[in-house]
Amino acid sequence: MQTVTLNNGVEMPLLGFGVYQIDDEDVCEESVYNALMEGYHLIDKAAVYENEEAVGRAIKRSGVPREGIFITTKLWIQDAGYESAKKAFETSLRKLQLDYLDLYLIHMPFGDVYGSWRAMEELYREGKIKAIGVSNFLNDRLIDLIVHHEIVPAVNQVETHVFTQQVENAQFMKVHDVQIESWGPFAEGKNNIFNNGTLVSIAEKHHKSVAQVALRWLMQRGIVAIPKSVHKERIIENFNIFNFELSEEDMQKIATLDTKESLILSLHEPENVAHLSKMTFHD
Ligand code: NAP
What pLDDT is stored for residue 283 in this prediction? Predict the structure, then answer.
């Protein structure tokens, strides 16, 4: 599996598996198990997805050694702040049946982000987390966190797909040594992505699927991707992307699909911020 080297030297797989919107515990466990069996080493989840126990069970059942798996989870807004973040971290660890995390992210740039980051810096220094980072941080939030703290986030996980390409933001992250990670690599199926004419013609040329082209495009840009599927055949398909290469011309054609706007979740909209901040879950 190809990896990227994070700003603290930790190796992170370039391709992984995401578990957002897999509400059924059994389906979640089976999907993660299938992904691990297929060879995925990176599993992306979050406390707010409320399926940490199922992920933990799948990891146990897979028999894959702990050091062979890269586990990311995320701190939700309701747990922002120094004390709450420490407690939420321990809860996630317990639910996942793990004794350390590979990557812990602040899920959203809202609430007491400073307190959370101080707690995460401490947990990192204690060796309980191999790398710490953020998600959904626009550049102004990211630079604010960077200049006021000692540890630079290793990763920023943001909406990134063919319709929201994040070209300038990716460049900003690169300059600041923050690895960009894509969430929603298939735009969650929006915009009729799987039937997009440009992508279909490129896929046919390479005898691949649109999903594989969408992922391959991210890989060639050096962007970590964590596609989600509950179907075993798609889990296999999404992993089978390292035996072909998009040409410069393919990459240029895909570049024209960029809308430069968020398709799924705009964090510029006050109503989205208010809505997300009210979302809670129970331990
Ligand atoms: P996504 O991966 O872009 O799209 C998932 C959708 O694509 C599902 O409907 C899935 O259907 C379908 N699909 C998967 N493989 C396919 C294939 N080969 N052909 C056709 N359809 C396919 O969306 P996502 O789950 O939102 O994003 C991926 C991960 O990013 C999440 O699971 C989560 O870990 C993370 N994420 C993070 C944030 C954040 O705020 N940080 C937000 C959203 C997501 P089936 O399952 O039915 O196959």
Answer: 75
For every residue of 137-175, DSSP letters joined together read --HHHHHHHHHTSSSPPSEEEEE-BTTB--HHHHHHHHH
Task: At 26, list the tokens.
Answer: 């059994």
CA 184 to CA 281: how far, in whole Å?
22
- Nearest to 106, CA basis, from 89, 128, 130: 89
Pocket of ligand 1 (CB under 6 A): 18-21, 44, 107, 135-136, 157, 183-189, 194, 209, 211, 226-231, 234, 237-238
Helix ranges (DSSP H) in the chain: 25-38, 52-62, 82-96, 113-125, 139-147, 167-175, 197-206, 210-220, 232-239, 248-255, 270-278
- For each of the domains in the chain, give its residue range(s) and CATH number, in order of start: 3-278 (3.20.20.100)
What's residue 1's pLDDT? 85
pLDDT along the chain (283 residues), means of 10: 96 98 94 98 94 94 96 97 98 96 98 97 98 98 97 98 98 98 98 98 98 98 98 98 98 98 95 95 80
Alpha-carbon distance of 167 to 94, in angstroms, equals 38
Quote the pLDDT of residue 260: 97
CA atoms within 13 A on the CB side of 175: 9
Give the orientation angle of helix 210-220 with respect to helix 248-255, to 10 degrees: 100
Distances (CA, A) of 86 to 44, 92, 110, 115, 208: 20, 10, 17, 10, 44
CA of 147 to the centre of ligand 1 (A): 33
Contacts of 148 (CB under 8 A, 6+ apart): 114
